[in-house]
Amino acid sequence: MKTRVSFGAALVLACGMAQAAPFTLSSPDLAGGVFPNIHVLKGFGCNGGNVSPALAWSGVPEGTRSLVLMVHDPDAPTGSGFWHWTVFDIPASTQGLARGAGNSAASLPAGARGGINDYQDTGANGGNGNYGGPCPPAGEGAHRYVFTLYALSVDQVAQAAGIPPTGTPALYGFVLNRGLGKAVLGKASFTASYGR
Q: Which of 84, 103, 171, 184 has the maximum number of C-beta atoms within 10 A of its C-beta?
């Protein structure tokens, strides 16, 4: 009995390569692409629950030793956008964050640490290093909130980049998008919106 193999399959078999699964990031809580009130800030004129949404990821690149999560609103009328959530040094074996994980350092995976956001020292998110939900100016229309997960070949991003652990999200953004170079093995992102 003869077995037929397509040209593409034969090429993959001949080269001994299997195509890697894509690196993806998603949220079951934001599946519709819009923030429900439970994830909106409670403060600055907003009356949400300020609970961080659950996140899930898959296809983490081979060689990943840690992950970094950053959430940014590029539409905020600041001239530089607005940072809502940063989490550094997430263990590579982690496959997501549970709903509410960003509301307390104790809820993050062991080894991970919450970084600052633009609600720093306002008390709006319960404490520095925690998630701060969306709260755009009233009547301005919907803003975009970009969730980005970076896969790194280093254990601790600040140490590898030579920056302080207390660095701003913009400084970390520079390091992740330019400074670390090949140590950034991949990034995955999605966008959700909210307006009032």
A: 84
